[in-house]
Amino acid sequence: MVLETNVLLTNEEAKLRDEIKEFVKSIAPDYLRAMEAEEIDYPEEALKEMARRKILGLRFPKKYGGRELNWVSDCVAVEEISVLGQGMGCVYSMPIIVGESLIAFGTEEQKKKYLSPILTGEIISAEGLTEPRGGSDFFGTITTAEKRNGLYVLNGEKRFIAGAVAADLFLLYARTDPKAPGHQALSAFLVEKDMGVEIAERYGLMGFHGMGTARIVLKDVAVPEENLLLGENKGALIFNRMMVPERLTSAAGSLGIRATIETAVRYSDKRKAFGAKIRRFEGVSFKIADCMTKLDAARGLVYIAAKQADLDPDSSQTRRLVSEAKLFATQAAWEIVNDAMQILGGIGYTYVYPVEKALRDTRLGLIWTGSNEVMKMLVQHEAYRRLLTGEDKDRDLELDAIEAHKIAEKVFE
User: Fold this and answer.
1) Which residues contact 352 (CB under 8 A, 6 or more apart)?
2) Rounded to 10 degrees, what is the CA torsion of 84, 85, 86, 91?
3) I want to staple 348 with a disulfide (CB 3.0 to 4.6 A). Which of 20, 120, 276, 355 is the partner?
4) What's domain 237-388's superfamily in CATH?
């Protein structure tokens, strides 16, 4: 599909997009089919090829293996790679996510030990947030970390960890203060699998096949003190920053749904019914118009959020825009894939076309990295805060009403 996105990109970003497209073309269909059939448990070969092409961790400093680019570049890359499927987009995004914790909060020793090998493909990283008794309630974490003789001993469970079966390193959060409220009690740790992480359950998923998603168990896992990030009980600071790469890559990955629009366009230009190509019927062609509009709107919001993240990743404005991008892009992708299936009809529900796979993969976007209901909570909170304090208010429009002077008619209780 030809993309009219250069208006949003610099020449360098457009060249990067073309570079990533070349990687996407290099992935053989047989490889993706093997992932979907779960003959491949995790696409390590694809990850290593990304590393060989030096396209992992584009924003990070060159001395660790990155290119010192920006968030727009990362989003361009995530979108292109997600054309291969949301699962492959997640594989690409994980070094961005775990790498963010290291570049923002890690010591120089931690960066050298873990970030560089992550970007060269020597270490596969994963992140564990969700626990069996808590999903969106992150600060309800009950995994514990008790300090003993210079070590932190971790006990607990984490579930739904993408890539867990292949991961060498996990970014995990645990409670280090048993008495404090969650946002003051959690700490973040870099936990190597060889420290004693147990893969307890490999999940069978509706979509995202070949991702090796699992539940892990931590039974007296001893973690060296030097693997603590930032400091004890500083997990909330790390978590809040980490939601930027978590949700921005999720939003950018949803833009890969454009490949499904292309499938629907080509099908509707060939398929005939009632004596004409079905694209001639507004019931079909208007769906394509809706899909393209939603895609372009989603991409614009994702890039705005990316630019804001470059300006100030910790601001409330960034938190709002990233939440909006994740909310809108994942919802748009879900509506787009459903329209694509409607255009293909029954054949779209079979394995003959990739639309059914895209539908299964896309459904996860509305749930993970914070459900879309949580995104709405965050957006409305920031909207009320900024508008009620006058931070985003230009003028008092109530005074412009013809009968604005009738104060007695403004009854609130």
Assistant:
1) none
2) -50
3) 355
4) Butyryl-CoA Dehydrogenase, subunit A, domain 3 (1.20.140.10)
